[in-house]
Amino acid sequence: MNFTIVNNCHETIWPGITSTNTTLSGGGFTLKPGETATYSPPQGWGGRIWGRTGCSFDKNGNGTCQTGACGSTLTCTTPGTPPASIAEFTFGDITFYDVSLVDGFNLPLTVTPIEGKGDCSVAGCGTDLRANCPSELAFRSSGKIVACRSACNVFDSDQYCCKGVYDNPVTCMPTNYSRVFKTACPLAYSYAYDDPTSIITCSTTDFVVSFCSPRNETQQCSYHDNRRVCNGSTESKPISYLWLVFVLFWPIVIQI
Asked: Name one Pfam family in it (predicted).
């Protein structure tokens, strides 16, 4: 199984990857607009992928980011600092995956399975929540909204963070803030116990992790065993020579 990370944004991003076992790509790398990167995690791999924005790193990989920073280095050994949109995976015979906005939102992010068996729905949020972020959750840099924080991150209350007496699915319920996220992105985690509509399963498949990819884009492709594999519509095929001759000359035959 592979996953391909795609940058469909108009800006460079710096994906971070942390794992419970094997580290991929050193934990972080640069991905320019239009670029992709493909990885083959081992069986049982579990981890998270997110995009850092507004970063500046020197030749030694030291620097800063506006959002999603995992310290002061290009490579990550710890999760990114909120707010950040996160893709989460647990690979196995059946792979569990989701996109979480529990730590806030900094980039549109979707996960699309390729040729899988099972539920295999698209997970995530193709909408840019920064455009309609509640003012009290807005995360700004140089006066510009660059991310949307979670209510937990802003207020740090038991109710918003699902902790204390709210640390269970019975007492921790959606809030007005999490509903803003869920309404815009119904297939993403909006709060800690949003499992029923957010965790998706799929087996024997590849995945495409897309930053800034619109949800109405019906085809996503990855590369597996040196071939291009896509979901949705099949690859277009060239028109055969005989069919082209038929199309061009049939009107002439009719007139005769």
From this structure: Thaumatin
Burial class (CB in 10 A: 0-12, 13-18, 19+), 17: buried
The CA distance from 111 to 220, in Å, is 10
51 and 103 Cβ atoms separated by less than 8 Å: no
How many CB atoms neighbour CB 249 within 10 A? 10
All structural domains of the chain: 3-255 (2.60.110.10)
User: How far is the CA of 225 from the CAs of 38, 147, 233, in angstroms?
Assistant: 12, 37, 20
Q: Which class for 209: exposed (0-12), middle (13-18), buried (19 or more C-beta within 10 A)?
A: buried
The residue count of the chain comes to: 256
Per-residue pLDDT reduced to its tens digit, 215-224:
444 444 444 4
